[in-house]
């Protein structure tokens, strides 16, 4: 059971985003503090500490050593036997056992994930559909003394620049604008490459896949920013902040691209290359 639980913990780690929440908390706090006398309490500092410890744990964890200690391990390989590496723990499995559960992490072992490319593109297309709504419509509405004003993501970035919060503006711009576009563009590039059996720039594509899988979760920082300060900004008849129409669409883009990246099998990029004869 230990291998199965560690596999699930690795998957859940992508969705446990305390470190991302911490950045959103900082941005939200800076936006609220000039208007309201607030301070971070004991629970808030505990969350900050937990977020830092989570980042430290992720940075120092040697997952290959954990898998070796969980076992079982393959001591030697038969040179006459073809093997498939488990996509989760890396354990080599005999090719004739494809589709069976890995003895170490209990995940099904496939040479290539079944229908992974089509599933990836389906979720990417759904993300493309939500993408324009996320950026053309307001992310939030600010009500101040009878006047309602909407702010898009780009407007929010400009407001942070005007307030001289350049670091936070750069974070929001990268996380909310650059990263979602990079993920959608990259996933489309991967899909076209697999369908056309392209063997060009395979190392670059693999590196980009690893990059977008790692940084994709940081696009939630804008959502967390709104989550932190929106409940506080309500002064009856004077000031209020409401969720805009773009927030559900933006959240959909982030979640859909994360699922699409999870579905994609980077080994499919190399399938055409492996079928070609090489000296």
TrEMBL record:
Residue stretches spanning the membrane: 35-56, 120-138, 165-194, 239-260
Keyword Membrane: yes
Entry keyword set: Membrane, Transmembrane, Transmembrane helix
Cross-referenced Pfam families: PqiA
InterPro entries per record: PqiA-like (IPR007498)
Keyword Transmembrane: yes
Top-level division of the source organism's lineage: Bacteria
Entry protein name: Paraquat-inducible protein A
Source species of the chain: Acidithiobacillus sulfurivorans
